[in-house]
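Figure 3 (text version): structure tokens given as input.
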């Protein structure tokens, strides 16, 4: 399954996962969802930059740890961008009592699930996404 996951960190923000690990996460999820080709970009931004995006694209003035934008989803290709805020991920790791590395992997999984078409708008949807995140975190040993 040819897939490409690229990582961009223009401000050199603290992020514990390497590009190879991000590729491993993508490969696992996309294989299980029968996606033959992918182009996924994961971009680290500051808290304020991601908040500005949330305001601009979702009309919500709030800090967030992840925003996903599907660009193309066809039978043969999944293309999208995942924007993450390492500082917000670190805050959530402390809040939930987990490691920063584990929470980073969870957020990347969460972002990819959004690209695959999953939502977390209802409590039921959130529970389903959390179950899938837990499943992949366990399978990938994060």
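Below: residues designed for each position.
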């Amino acid at each position: 399954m040819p897939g490409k996951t690229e990582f961009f960190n223009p401000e050199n923000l603290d992020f514990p996962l390497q590009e190879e690990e991000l590729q491993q996460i993508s490969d696992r999820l996309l294989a299980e969802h029968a996606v033959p080709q992918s182009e996924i970009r994961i971009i680290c931004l500051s808290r304020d930059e991601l908040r500005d995006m949330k305001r601009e694209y979702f009309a919500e003035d709030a800090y967030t740890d992840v925003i996903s934008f599907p660009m193309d989803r066809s039978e043969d290709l999944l293309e999208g961008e995942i924007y993450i805020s390492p500082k917000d991920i670190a805050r959530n790791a402390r809040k939930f009592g987990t490691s920063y590395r584990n929470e980073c992997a969870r957020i990347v999984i969460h972002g990819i699930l959004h690209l695959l078409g999953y939502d977390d708008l209802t409590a039921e949807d959130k529970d389903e996404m959390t179950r899938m995140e837990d499943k992949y975190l366990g399978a990938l040993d994060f």
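The chain has one domain: 3-140.
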